[in-house]
TrEMBL record:
It comes from the Bacteria. The keyword Iron-sulfur does not apply. InterPro entries: AcuC, HDACs, His_deacetylse_dom, His_deacetylse_dom_sf, Ureohydrolase_dom_sf. Coiled coil: none annotated. Pathway: Ketone degradation; acetoin degradation. This is Acetoin utilization protein AcuC. Residues 22-316 form the Histone deacetylase domain. It comes from Kribbella deserti.
Length: 391
């Protein structure tokens, strides 16, 4: 990698906190940064604090009415506002919710600014990736949609085309909804089937609005899909659609809740498969848009076993110095986990799996749900992007 890389992070970003017992604990972000520091990854990154997005920036995606509702909810967290999705069973209200959420948005926009200006080639915000938030509705642990605001900022600065790839186990419905009829934005989401997992959207037939046919690409995966199947699906679709779209910038969301140990979903990937996906996205950024890459976090609820290792791998790849999967996890970090959380942390940066897969060109097997899903997406999306859906 040529050029400096950046992490946008400060301790204030851990204030995005729904409280004790909520699965989206900010501890996962804190542990990630501490592990990355212990392994020397932060030495390879320019680390900068995050600004707080102002209302003018937020209203490029969210309605003024919704922003006012978020502010009220943060001032009176015991009073739910179900009309705006605030105070539901998954998206609790908490004090100063607006400020904490706007801080996450500011971090993603700062990452986008640094990449677009040429200050760095790659930039990351692991606290971000809140992809379910809608313009006037909180959803799925997401209050403001930081990837969408960052993408809109890039468009407003003159980016002709932006591609967004979402590898979270849940469909990236909020980002898709914001740009569904905008031909300048390609949204690609690989996720567990909407028939078995929230938010129940993301079928292959969702391909973009009337003014933007082909700019939404959805790859719903069967429950139980592991590294080999997930990577087969990724490589059968994502490189081709990105090359056809020719984005100026690549924005990615790296929810690691596709892991077999994640408590909220049903895929069976490992750290090794997730790392392979990050490497592939890094390489595609260099191949198609001169390396301009903005990476965010996302879901991930195995906060000791999975998230810190997965996102430390991501940050190392962003920095241009990938970590050998066989690298031991530093004992100092494992001791901290034991003292703080009373848990035994993993001992290596790998799950010991081989992230190999069988390429789509080897042939289509109609007897498998996975291959039928891949073919369905290719059949509906490829022609809209000028691609041949056959092998």
């Amino acid at each position: 990698m040529s050029g400096e890389a950046m992490l946008v992070f400060d301790e204030g970003l851990t204030a995005y906190d729904f409280g004790h017992g909520h699965p989206m604990s900010p501890v996962r972000v804190d542990l990630t940064v501490r592990l990355a520091r212990a392994l020397g990854v932060l030495d390879q990154l320019k680390v900068v604090p995050a600004p707080i997005a102002d209302d003018a920036l937020l209203t490029t995606v969210h309605t003024a009415e919704y922003i006012a509702a978020v502010k009220r909810a943060g001032e009176n967290p015991d009073v739910p506002d179900l009309e705006h999705g605030l105070g539901t069973d998954d998206t609790y209200c908490f004090p100063r919710m607006h400020e904490a959420s706007a801080h996450v948005v500011g971090a993603s926009v700062e990452a986008a600014r640094a990449v677009w200006s040429g200050e760095v080639v790659h930039a990351a915000n692991v606290s971000g990736g809140l992809h379910h938030a809608m313009p006037s509705l909180a959803s799925g642990f997401c209050v403001y949609n930081d990837p969408a605001v960052a993408i809109q900022w890039l468009l407003d600065q003159g980016a002709e085309r932006v591609a967004y790839v979402d590898v979270d186990v849940h469909h990236g419905d909020g980002v898709q909804a914001v740009f569904y009829d905008d031909p300048r934005v390609l949204t690609v989401s690989l996720h567990e089937s909407p028939t078995t997992l929230f938010p129940g959207t993301g079928s292959a037939g969702e391909t973009g609005g009337p003014n933007a046919p082909g700019t939404a690409v959805n790859i719903p995966l069967p429950p139980g899909t592991g590294d080999a199947g997930w990577l087969r699906a990724f490589h059968a679709i994502v490189p081709d659609v990105l090359k056809a779209f020719r984005p100026s910038v690549l924005v990615t969301q790296h929810g690691c809740d596709s892991h077999v140990e994640d408590p909220l979903a049903h895929l069976t990937k490992t750290i090794d498969g997730q790392r392979a996906a990050y490497v592939a996205l890094h390489d595609l950024a260099h191949e198609i848009c001169d390396g301009k890459w903005v990476a965010t976090g996302g879901g991930g609820y195995a906060i000791v076993e999975v998230v810190p290792r997965a996102w430390t791998h991501l940050l190392a790849i962003v920095a241009g110095h990938p970590i050998d999967p066989a690298t031991p996890v530093p004992e100092s970090w494992r001791d901290e986990v034991r003292m703080r959380l009373g848990q035994v942390a993993p001992s290596r940066m790998t799950d010991g799996r081989d992230a190999a897969y069988t390429d789509w060109s080897s042939g289509y097997n109609p007897d498998t749900w996975l291959d039928r899903s891949i073919k369905a997406t290719r059949d509906v999306s490829f022609p809209l992007l000028g691609l041949d859906p056959t092998y």
